[in-house]
Amino acid sequence: MRAAVALSRRCPPSTTAFSVGAIVVDAWGAVLAEGYSRRDDPLDHAEETALRSLAPEDPRLVSATLYSSLEPCTERTSRPSTCTDLILATPIPRVVIAWREPELFVDAEGVERLRRAGRTVVEDTALAEEARAVNADLLD
Description:
CATH class: Alpha Beta
Protein name: dCMP deaminase
Strand content: 15-25%
Radius of gyration: 13 Å
CATH architecture: 3-Layer(aba) Sandwich
Mean pLDDT: 91
GO molecular function, one term: catalytic activity
Largest sheet: 5 strands, mixed
CATH topology: Cytidine Deaminase, domain 2
Number of strands: 5
Oligomer: single chain
Pfam families: dCMP_cyt_deam_1
Domain CMP/dCMP-type deaminase: 1-112
Strand order of the largest sheet: 2-1-3-4-5
Shape: globular
Order of helices and strands: HEEHEHEHEHH
């Protein structure tokens, strides 16, 4: 999770979107992919950029974990698929987040949707304050 929060600090600034980092690791902890918001395009989300470099049928994903500094989105106007949908299009069984998305831009339901789909979601609040601090300009 610490690496995902570190990636969030690399996000280009935005007044309309959170700065988020995401990492996908295999069962042994090796990094398979990483991404952050606005990495390649101003509309990019962190999970989207990380998953873009992996084939959804990659066999390593069946035991992988996706770490995200913020709850995956469930509402989006800039792209056809939400980050939650992108995760559900893979066999990734476990998602760990630092904090839930505050109701600033949308009413996020990523944790609930992932759990209803049978995915394990862990809220690792130990780094929640660090993840929030990266976005302090939006929350003040």
